Records
---
Amino acid sequence: MRQGCVDAHALPDHSLLLYHTGSEVAFPLNESGAFIWEMCDGAHTLDQIVDAVASKYEAQREQIDKDTRAFLDVLIHHDLVRPQVPVA
């Protein structure tokens, strides 16, 4: 789920510029990163995000899964999103 302390600014090429208001650091995201960011709304599971990316981009599902997880780890590391906690 996206953190509330992040402002997202859409750019004409479908990329995004994220600005973390707490650390005052900007993070540019390319089109695929922006697509994943938009799905980090708390309503989509990790598997749903991977499925959506796989349906949009031409690549092997295994590679998309690996890349998406790695990208989300970076977003979590920079406090741009927080991981979803599974509901028991």
Note: Helices lie at 31-39, 46-56, 61-77.
---
Amino acid sequence: MKYRAKIEVSLKPGHSDPEGETASRLLKELGYTVEAVGVSKVYTIFLEAQTPVDAKAKAEDMCKRLLANPTKDNYTIAIEEQK
């Protein structure tokens, strides 16, 4: 079966997010009231797997091996069956 894995990778609390800090500062300069801005990456991966559990396991392995740095990143995975 074909699945779509949506993987969001974001920084763990306490890690510097210069892009988010810049966006926050500029939004405030434009007159928006924002407390903070965090930047994350979203990967959309189309893959084949036997079951949704298998697809999630593959996506988890991708995160551990390449997409996320366990020292500084958190990630979430959502799996959706494709038709």
Note: The radius of gyration is 16 Å.
